[in-house]
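Hi support team,

I'm filing this because I wasn't sure whether my run with zinc ion finished correctly. The job status page said complete, but I'd like someone to confirm that the output block is well-formed before I use it downstream. Pasting the exact inputs I used:
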Amino acid sequence: MKAITVEPKKPGTIRYEDVPEPDIRDGSLLVEAVAVGVCGTDAETAEGKYGWAPPGKTRLVLGHESLGRVIEPDPAGRFKKGDLVVGIVRRPDPVPCPNCAIGEWDMCRNGQYTERGIKQIDGYMSDHWRIEPEYAIRVDAGLGMMGVLLEPTTVVAKAWEVAIEVGRRAFWEPRNVLVTGAGPIGLLAALLGKQFGLAVHVLDRVESGAKPDLVRALGATYHTGRVADLEFEPDIIIECTGVGLVITDSLQKAGSGGVILLTGVGSGGPISGLSIADIATGAVLGNKAVVGSVNANKRHWYKAGEALARADRQWLSQLVTRYESPANFSKALHRGPDDIKVVIQFSAV
Ligand SMILES: [Zn+2]
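And here is everything the job wrote out:
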């Protein structure tokens, strides 16, 4: 079979090549790949900036936003031939830490977790892949190709759960939510915010195109410019850019008792003229909570599946702005200005 593989931490080593069929030790469920979404982590790994090969190997099969079709069911019969499934990304650490021991691998304490397509386990960008049935999630058949959005939706489902949990530390009636960044994560965060019945505002740099249209189609409000210039105080801010100035503005802009949920990953860049102590003082006097959130556990995969099943299919389909064949992997990894989510399609859904 063929797979998209890379030698992690070595730029220019990515290729679409022949590899052996997946090992039965990877899981009893054999799956034919339908599609794999591409995200920033894949691009970084392809550029030699990230990723770890499986123990004893030099190359890693890329890809963690999966969608596939069962071709050989598990012996226990939890899945049947033809089921559409998505594979969970993270596996608990072997120690295990207390969180991994109870299935909260997204909250791993010791960093020894592994991740398919990222950290020490082959990913899903191969014609076939195997998976342990307990780490496979059945996709609502009506979702079809949009099942490929399940993994990014799990990240958002967890972020929302954390924001709501933290907000409940006191009497709390959130009304306004601000989502910074209108990429796939931001747009899916906005979708969930609308499903929760909140007034949703989304801020991004672009002034036209698919992003503003998709935000408005949700019944949410689209903004450009600086967070500091917005004319309302958000109760919740879901930060999806990782941009320094957007983060510092968000910390100041959130209303008293507000929750700033950080999901963006970035580095460097300018921030506003305020010092950390100034920003912290604002957080203290306003009872503001700043929380980071990454990854997702099985509960979030379930919630994400429910959220996608409730969403408008037509709206979801517009999040995928481009499909590429596996042989065209380099085009798929390059994100254009109008791209939201690019998907590598292995077979028809
Ligand atoms: Zn752990």
